[in-house]
Amino acid sequence: MQKRKGMACLLLTLMLTLGALAGCAGQQTEKESFTLSAAVCGSAASLDPARNADEAAESVFYALYENLLRMSDDGAGGAAVVPGVAKEYKSVTNYDGTVDYVFTLRSSARWSDGTHVKARDFVYAWRRLVDPETNSPHHALLSMVKGYDTARETGETAALAVSARGDTTFCVTLAAPCPYFLERVCTAAATMPLRSDVVTKDPAGWASSVNLVSNGAYQVGVWKADEYLQLRRSAAYYESKLVGPDILRFVFAKDAEEAYRLYEEGTVDYVPALPEGAAAQLIEAGQTLPADPLSTTCCVLYNHEDPLFSDEHVRRAFDLAIDRMAAAAAAAGMPATGFVPQGVPNGTEDGTEFRTAGGALCGADTEGYAERCAQAVQELERAGYEFDGTFPQVQMLYAAEEGTSYAAAAALAAMWEQVLGTEVTLEGLPREDFDARLTAGEYQLAADTFRVPDGDVEALLARFAGSGEENVIRYANGTYDILLGVVRASESLAARAAFLHDAEAMMLDDAALSPVYFGGTTHLLRAGLQGVYRDCRGTSYLQAVTHTAAEQK
After folding, report:
1. For the chain, what percent of residues have pLDDT higher than 90?
2. In angstroms, rounded to a whole number, what is the distance separating the alpha carbons of residues 377 and 54?
3. How remote is the C-alpha of 201 from its chain's centroid?
4. I need a labelling partner for 133 at 20 to 30 A (CA). Which of 266, 443, 463, 503 fits?
5. Alpha-carbon span 37 to 39, nearest angstrom
6. pTM beyond cutoff 0.70
7. pLDDT recorded at residue 215
8. What is the C-alpha separation between 95 and 286, in angstroms, rounded?
9. Strand runs (DSSP E) across 142-255, as ranges?
10. Do 523 and 290 meet the contact criterion of CB atoms below 8 Å apart?
């Protein structure tokens, strides 16, 4: 009997000990498991990187996939290019002006199902991107690759000069030097690798399946359409142990206002862009918010075929009357000092930005504004108008659904009335109607925002050359068109950059349009968290988010 009691006591002690250990293990797992919830404006119906047209969803793709190169924290909250799937690369400029790039893939790069990422996965993805049947909005990303035009015209994607040498060497030949190839093309979501066996097995459903095979820091966990997408850390990722959140939960919101409401309710921990007015309220309440510069420029567009704005003196008067400091403050941006925004590479070997190299081409200082206003009145007089209310009333269009558009437009209208005595009425339109009016030339003034396509300054400036549909201001300057032709023919990166600077300066000397402010925004991360970094396109990278040191204690 005594023996049974002893055995019972021993068993009880063992059970209690095991229970205590299990409890400790449960507490440790709970403590170490870190879920970060972030708002995304819009909803993800597909995780096909080649077809994504929603810039707000880019953070999702950068969590799921990794390209040849990737963006990493630059130490100041911005993003810098570092090796990704490719551990190294070499480039050689050939006698015919073409450029060969050879990328060596790291052997530790794997897909979420454990298989190695191979060079042929990039070959397949890049050829699929330019294939007309894919109908990707991003196919022009590869326009600098030799054979691109043939592939687009014929559908013969094998013409694209990309190839694999074995499993770990990916080769690309560019038709000419491209200053943004590495920084923009080799980090883009649209050029991420894809597995041909996965895509061809289920062409219609592979990108909307919870069984999606990805090669980034995360893989799909739970996906509830129109509500949230939950990703979990991928054990196959080569730097899995360095990833911050164990779970990334992207909650879909219809707009910035709803995203901020979700934050206030505690549903999400991160809002990538605060709605108009919210940032000001938080700053007034004593909260410090990061200012995120964006590579966009808000401009006043003049219709050069309009009887009033065909006169360069009138355009120059309106330009000189702009208080860029005040307009930027109204729109939470930065005063524009040129048409090409900040954050865009100059394309030269010294690694400078285009805006830094080009300097200030627009008056943006407060001290000189009074003098510019006096010059504006003189320009209006040269056009035959006095400051006496005789200048006709004009109308300015703006895209009504785009946050700070009205605030900026209203500020501009007030400046012109005060400085020039001109009444400017405002008309807000849905984006589709706004674009249609500009294309048709049915406007006098318009406020619009421009982004440098894939970091290519030439593509931005070329919009206003010749008589193409994109030249909505109807700017006509034969010398400007010739300059851009020289840019296209130039094989020297330094000469190319110089000609682009000349073209930008010429456009602004003609007052073809008026840059007003460079884009800016601010994000909000819950107290106790750190590690978000963002690029100049506004994309947020969340893989490195951790608890602050104080929170960890």
Report:
1. 69
2. 44
3. 32
4. 463
5. 7
6. yes
7. 97
8. 60
9. 162-165, 169-174, 218-224, 228-233, 247-253
10. yes
Beta strands in 145-201 (DSSP E): 162-165, 169-174
For residues 202 and 215, give the distance between their C-alpha atoms in angstroms, rounded to a whole number.
Answer: 18
pLDDT of 335-350, one tens digit each? 999 999 988 888 787 7
* CA 293/CA 22 separation, integer angstroms: 49
Supply 251's token pair. Answer: 């909650």
Q: How many CB atoms lie within 10 A of CB 51?
A: 16
Nearest by Cα to 448 from 436, 463, 458, 438: 438
Q: Residue 431, Cβ neighbours under 10 Å: how many?
A: 12
What is the tens place of the pLDDT at every residue in 16-50? 343 443 443 333 344 468 999 999 987 788 999 99
Could you tell me whether strands 218-224 and 228-233 are parallel, antiparallel, or unpaired per DSSP bridges? antiparallel
Residues of the chain with CATH 3.40.190.10: 36-273+524-552
Residue 378 CA to residue 131 CA, distance in Å, equals: 55
Least confident among 9-23, 238-252, 420-434: 9-23
Q: How far, CA to CA in Å, does 517 sit from each of 179, 326, 408, 445?
A: 25, 10, 9, 16
- The answer to whether the beta carbons of residues 350 and 179 sit under 8 Å apart is no
What pLDDT is stored for residue 189 in this prediction? 95
Taking a C-beta distance cutoff of 8 angstroms, is the pair 435, 384 a contact?
no
CATH 3.10.105.10 boundaries in the chain:
295-520
Report the C-alpha gap between 328 and 409 in whole angstroms.
11
Can you tell me the distance from the alpha carbon of 234 to that of 236, in angstroms, rounded to the nearest whole number?
A: 5
CB-based contact 208:199 (threshold 8 Å): no
Residue 181 DSSP label = I
Q: How big is the CA angle at 258 (ends 255 and 260), to the nearest 5 degrees? A: 110
Q: Provide the strand spans (E) within 333-387.
A: 334-335
pLDDT value of position 30: 42
Tokens linked to 138: 């991003």
Segment among 138-142, 236-240, 491-495, 539-543 with least mean pLDDT:
491-495
Residue 143's contacts (CB-CB under 8 Å, 6 or more residues apart) are: 149
Number of other CB atoms surrounding residue 194 within 10 Å: 24
For 427-438, give the DSSP string: EEE-HHHHHHHH
Based on the number of CB atoms within 10 Å of its own CB, is 9 exposed (0-12), middle (13-18) or buried (19 or more)? exposed
Q: Where are the beta strands (DSSP E) in 19-128?
A: 35-41, 69-73, 79-83, 86-93, 99-105
Determine whether domain 36-273+524-552 maps to CATH 3.40.630.10: no
Task: Tell me how far apart the alpha carbons of residues 306 and 441 are, in angstroms, rounded to a whole number.
Answer: 9
Domain 295-520 of CATH type 3.10.20.30: no
445-451 and 394-399 as β-strands: parallel, antiparallel, unpaired? parallel
